[in-house]
């Protein structure tokens, strides 16, 4: 597929839009790369992989990806397995999807391999953290509304120690959210998906992720991923790190323009060596 040229409304700069399809362990995932004006193998630019949350698709990060592309950063958005136009079922292999998306962007001739980052929301934030630990190459990481570790949630509430029951409760919550939010769509292998969550030990990964600039964003009225559930992972995370807590709900970091400007400005500065975002 050949790129088309778009005009970004926020910057009036030309951005190349490249529809992509890449493999992830036998499945084909679909997405898009947005290349900034002037990016080439002779003028390499930073790159970022965006990772959407459960029940969403690559469109969740469309505006954010275009903001970064307008500021000279190549961005890749994609549909996780079991979402959007990607193949397969959501089966707990989200981290592998992120790693494969990273490798696909990494292989583009326009990308500066020393300035690459990951940005994720909710399920995508947890997957991005775990992928960063596996890759050990990210120079920047942003987690929006990241869930806490399951075993810490259980430890904080001993009545939930009977994990099979707790797992059924989580499944019920996911199904309920999908039922009442008609915009959420996912094809799921529930057993494999839920079995993967206790293995997502973000605290261990973040403690070892030295040299990667990290930002975590939470909203006070978010019942799905309250910031206190992630507190332990943040406390043990290595420097440099920062947290932003705002008013709002689970999707506010994606939908509220002022909040989105805050974290995209931080990400742009991190990848451009501290240069301020002038949006």
Summing up helix and strand content along with how strands pair, one would put the structural category as: alpha/beta
DSSP strand count:
9
Overall number of domains? 1
Order of strands, main sheet, comes to: 1-2-3-5-4-6-7-8-9
Amino-to-carboxy terminus distance: 31 Å
Named CATH architecture? 3-Layer(aba) Sandwich
CATH classification, class level: Alpha Beta
SS summary, helix count: 10
Strand percentage lies at 15-25%
State Rg.
18 Å
What does this structure look like?
The structure is a single chain. Helix content is 37%, strand content 23%. It has a nine-stranded mixed sheet with strand order 1-2-3-5-4-6-7-8-9, sandwiched between helices. Helix 2 crosses helix 3. The N terminus and C terminus are likely disordered.
Concise account of the structure shown:
The protein is of the alpha/beta class and 279 residues long.
Secondary-structure blueprint:
Elements: E1 4-7, E2 14-24, E3 27-35, E4 45-51, H1 62-70, E5 74-78, H2 94-106, E6 111-121, H3 123-135, E7 140-144, H4 150-156, H5 163-180, H6 190-196, H7 202-208, E8 213-219, H8 227-236, E9 241-246, H9 252-255, H10 257-271
Parallel strand pairs: 4-5, 4-6, 6-7, 7-8, 8-9
Antiparallel strand pairs: 1-2, 2-3, 3-5
Helix pairs in contact: 2-3, 3-7, 7-8
